[in-house]
Amino acid sequence: MAGKDFGGTMKFRDSSGRNVTLRGNFTIFPANASIEAVVNQDGSADRVATPTAPRAEISFADKGIDLAAMMGDERRDVTITEEFTGVAHLFTQAFYTGDPQSNRLNGEVTGVGITGAVYRKIG
Question: 58, 73, 78, 81: which has the fewest C-beta neighbours closer than 10 Å?
């Protein structure tokens, strides 16, 4: 079903068995480099590549996860599955990044990222 289809139910699980209920905001940064344009004094354009690691930003329901412990976890494999599209996102040897914030009005955690040594999209 993938290709032009998006959305639907998404499931998050890491290799410790932790399941996180995503809130729908799930953004992938799959590249291994960030490319920036620079302009030389003669008007010609060059580009500068800065190495990066594959990563994702997530938001999820605050269902009692110890966020401080989560951020200090050892590296884990992370799988995020899009049930509607049949696409799976695999992060190998991933760790949590960011500055988590828990919105107590709506129960949403934002500011959490995942960075992995390897990213693979299946489907």
Answer: 73
